[in-house]
């Protein structure tokens, strides 16, 4: 029997490799809109971050999220991410 490989992704906050399912995907759509991708299937460039405030804060503060998405991340987007996290949208 073949063992199914679990996809791994690197968190842009802590730089640790984790299971894709355990991370939040933030996506930049082809139109340039940045949003939280809860399905993991949205079109566009994605960046993965741990679902905790420390990693999201670090990713934004050190501009890692901006580099990963190749676009400046506005304060509103950052606030929305933390809000979605607080409401348990995972």
Strand order, biggest sheet? 4-3-5
Q: What's the main sheet like? A: 3 strands, antiparallel
Round the Cα radius of gyration to an integer and report it. 13 Å
Number of helices: 3
N- to C-terminal distance: 32 Å
Please trace the helix and strand order, writing H or E for each element. EEEEEHHH
By helix and strand content, what is the structural category? alpha+beta
Estimate what percentage of residues fall within beta strands.
15-25%
- What do the pLDDT scores average to? 86
By DSSP, the count of extended strands is 5
- The percentage helix is 25-40%
Shape: globular
Mind explaining what this structure looks like?
With 90 residues, this protein is of the alpha+beta class. Helix content is 30%, strand content 22%. The chain has helices at 53-61, 64-69, 75-86, and strands spanning 8-10, 17-19, 24-28, 34-37, 45-49. The chain has a three-stranded antiparallel sheet. A hairpin with a 5-residue loop joins β3 and β4. α1 packs antiparallel against α3 (75-86). It is globular. The model has no long low-confidence stretch (mean pLDDT 86).
Features:
three-stranded antiparallel sheet; 22% strand; 5 strands; alpha+beta; 90 residues; two-stranded antiparallel sheet
């Amino acid at each position: 029997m073949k063992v199914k490989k679990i996809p791994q992704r690197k968190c842009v906050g802590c730089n640790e490799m984790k299971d894709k399912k355990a991370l939040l995907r933030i996506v930049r759509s082809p139109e340039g809109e940045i949003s939280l991708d809860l399905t993991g299937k949205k079109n566009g460039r994605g960046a993965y971050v741990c679902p905790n405030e420390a990693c999201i804060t670090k990713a934004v503060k050190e501009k890692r999220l901006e580099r990963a998405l190749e676009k400046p991340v506005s304060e509103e987007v950052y606030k929305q991410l933390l809000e979605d996290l607080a409401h348990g949208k995972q």
